[in-house]
């Protein structure tokens, strides 16, 4: 199975790198993968292959400042309105999917930062979706988000909007490895599989520090998606939360809190599955086949596919 690079143009004339994996012989639905912070969409090739084997067309795109969209400012969404722009980029991809794969139901799979962007998009009158999977997500403290955003604003004043902020990188990720001492690498928190961690370390499109402005955009987005009032704007559709019980991003109660925040009337189709021992990147974990198998079961159980 191979992937095919494409390029869309956003509403702001920004090029969106898009990848479409080979179409299965009899497609059931489309799964759109939206990746996390300091990584890129081509890391999901193994997952795409497993989904494709079960009849799912898979597409993914690189967020602004990531992957093949990293030049000239890696780790930077935009000088202004970055959060709204990445949410609208997601809409642009969905409109393309609706034209390219007319009639096929669409599922959105967001990992980590991609899950936050997915929630931000769901609050903005999204295109029709058959379901959403939120992987490695979180539901944190608005007070901490505000404090961190204040620090990021000082960093922007000190460094400029586009300059990577090592301070924000340390504040955002510096504590994640502590639970896994003695540490073999700075990224042991991603997975128990050392081969996958080493691949991440060797990839020049992974693990980079992001700009102070991206942190301001992201923290503003986190404040938005943690607002109970804004969460009422998330449509009533199947929502599935998955994560590792040892994921430091959401420790200790972030995913449970997200589940409770989302499972409010009229939304009743909200589910959660946590994996003991697993860390942040479920699809690169030692039990990834179990994770994918249960993801496939969830997809098949959603009303759109179970009725077909």
TrEMBL record:
Signal sequence extent? none
Domain (Serine aminopeptidase S33): residue spans on this chain: 26-286
Which residue windows are transmembrane per the record?
A: none
Q: Which InterPro entries match?
A: AB_hydrolase_fold, Hydrolase_4, MAG_DAG_Lipase
Q: SUPFAM superfamilies recorded for this chain?
A: alpha/beta-Hydrolases
Record PANTHER family: PHOSPHOLIPASE-RELATED
Which named protein is this? Answer: Lysophospholipase
Instruction: Give the species.
Output: Aestuariirhabdus litorea
Organism taxonomic ancestry: Bacteria, Pseudomonadati, Pseudomonadota, Gammaproteobacteria, Oceanospirillales
């Amino acid at each position: 199975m191979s992937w095919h690079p494409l390029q869309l143009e956003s509403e702001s004339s920004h090029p969106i790198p898009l990848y479409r994996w080979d179409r299965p012989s009899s497609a059931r639905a489309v799964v759109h993968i939206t990746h996390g912070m300091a990584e890129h969409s081509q890391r999901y090739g193994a997952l795409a292959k497993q989904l494709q084997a079960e009849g799912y067309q898979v597409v993914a795109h690189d967020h602004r400042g990531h992957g093949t969209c990293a030049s000239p400012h890696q780790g930077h969404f935009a000088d202004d309105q970055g959060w709204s722009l990445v949410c609208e980029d997601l809409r642009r991809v969905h409109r393309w999917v609706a034209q390219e794969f007319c009639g096929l139901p669409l599922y959105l799979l967001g990992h980590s930062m991609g899950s936050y962007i997915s929630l931000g998009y769901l609050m903005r009158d999204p295109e029709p979706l058959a379901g959403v999977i939120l992987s490695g997500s979180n539901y944190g403290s608005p007070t901490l988000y505000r404090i961190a955003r204040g620090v990021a604003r000082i960093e922007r004043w000190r460094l400029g909007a586009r300059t990577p902020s090592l301070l924000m990188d340390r504040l955002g990720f510096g504590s994640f490895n502590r639970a896994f001492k003695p540490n073999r690498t700075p990224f042991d928190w991603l997975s128990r599989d050392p081969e996958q961690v080493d691949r991440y370390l060797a990839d020049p499109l992974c693990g980079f520090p992001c700009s102070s402005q991206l942190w301001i955009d992201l923290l503003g987005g986190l404040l938005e998606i943690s607002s109970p009032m804004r969460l009422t704007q998330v449509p009533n559709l199947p929502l599935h939360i998955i994560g590792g019980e040892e994921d430091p991003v959401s420790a200790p109660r972030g995913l449970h809190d997200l589940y409770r925040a989302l499972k409010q009337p009229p939304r009743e189709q909200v589910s959660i599955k946590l994996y003991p021992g697993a860390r942040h990147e479920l699809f690169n974990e030692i039990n990834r086949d179990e994770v994918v198998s249960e993801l496939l079961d969830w997809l098949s159980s959603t009303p759109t596919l179970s009725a077909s």
